[in-house]
Amino acid sequence: MADQFDLVVIGSGPGGYVGAIRAAQLGMKVAVVEKWPSLGGTCLNIGCIPSKALLHASELFEEAGHGFKSLGIDIPAPVLNLPQMMNHKAEVVASNVGGVDYLFKKNKITVLRGTGSIPAAGRVLVTPQSGAPTEVQAKNIVIATGSVSANLPGIEIDEKTVVTSTGALTLEKVPGHLLVIGAGVIGLELGSVWLRLGAKVTVVEYLDRILPGMDSEVARQFQRMLQKQGMEFKLSSKVAGVDKQANGALQVRVEPSKGGEAEALDADVALVAIGRKPYTEGLGLEAAGVALDERGRVKVDHGFKTSVEGIYAIGDVIAGPMLAHKAEDEGIAIAEILAGQAGHVNYAAIPAVVYTNPEVASVGKTEDELKAEGVNYKIGKFPFTANGRAKAMQATQGFVKILADVETDRVLGGHIVGKNAGEMIHELVTLMEFSGAAEDLARTTHAHPTLSEAVREAALALGDGAIHI
């Protein structure tokens, strides 16, 4: 007799493991299928968590080398110990992965090691790396298999010199020249890590701007900041090929997006960061009757239900922003729906963060979107150059920008470029969750001196005007 579960989740990334824990909290008997040796998926093992460890370490290296002197801290020039920095990253990953193991044991969640596939509704086949496959019964199945790095045709990834984000997190030495293909979040974050550690970094982007989808004013200002740091950009350009030379170096052919004369750039490492694609390989979805959309994503309704009764999907494998916290919220929502509760995700208030230095954070609508929709909006802005705490921290780059409806004063979007922007965005997220007005924020007391005062000042700018400019 096969094991029987109320819920079997395929994939233990942020969506899968959070959904499993919430379902267990709600009294369900839960199993999670995971093919990797460790839990946590891309985010914890080869994505969000290890990249943040390197971002933080490289920022401190940069600060020690260039920022300490003006603060009255005289030290010799810092020396990079890359193996130890990578060891720090590995320890952070191990700690987080171990935390998921602990939470599964605490919540009595069964881990099934192997690749999961769905022969039919109510059945999950688990195929281990060695040994015979086993089948379990499930009242409900949630597909949470996430995404993988997308590649360009004709480019061979070896994760040594031509790398995805995975290889860029494990380079054994600082490349002399790192060429980044794609000016999205992943490319800019990892490019900034190696730039701070001493690499020359060139970013090639097909579009005429960086950070597609983010507010265009924010993207323009942020690009200038990155250029001041030494990052070079080739916009409206595409990579036509990457050739490996006999000496191990690369020659990258770059040409205008709309056609024209190509140029050859020499590089030591090329990072392909053109986005990610949903991972559905080996799930047997076609045989099970689970429908996909034109982009290979699993089609679901508002309750995350696929075309087959009892089979659901969440996270990067369905439509929407490929963000760990979006997947987490969907994991909680599907568990609550299966328990008969009103699980819900507010997609209009999901923050997005670029963890560079300074950070870029946003929530809600961009100015470009409001213009396109014909919404009558107003803008409140406040620069960190006028913030006392920012001056004390030598963190005056950037600004806060809040967009609100002219008639109702309801906040429609918020955008922050600056130190700790990813932490500051959440008061705007909370405000938008409760359909708050700019005046609500403007009348809320903020501790002084803090960087967050700039958010209040931007809200004040939507009324009679900010106080400190």
TrEMBL record:
GO molecular function: dihydrolipoyl dehydrogenase (NADH) activity; flavin adenine dinucleotide binding
InterPro entries the UniProt entry points to: Class-I_Pyr_Nuc-Dis_Oxidored, FAD/NAD-bd_sf, FAD/NAD-binding_dom, FAD/NAD-linked_Rdtase_dimer_sf, Lipoamide_DH, Pyr_nuc-diS_OxRdtase, Pyr_nucl-diS_OxRdtase_dimer, Pyr_OxRdtase_I_AS
Top-level EC class: oxidoreductase
SUPFAM superfamilies: FAD/NAD(P)-binding domain, FAD/NAD-linked reductases, dimerisation (C-terminal) domain
Protein residues bound to NAD(+): G182, A183, G184, V185, I186, G187, L188, E189, E205, G275
Disulfide-bond pairs as recorded: C43-C48
UniProt binding sites for FAD: K52, G116, T145, G146, S147, D316, M322, L323, A324, H325
GO cellular component, one term: cytoplasm
Chain ranges of the Pyridine nucleotide-disulphide oxidoreductase dimerisation domain: 350-459
Family of this protein: Belongs to the class-I pyridine nucleotide-disulfide oxidoreductase family.
Extra facts: The active site is a redox-active disulfide bond.
Designated name of the protein: Dihydrolipoyl dehydrogenase
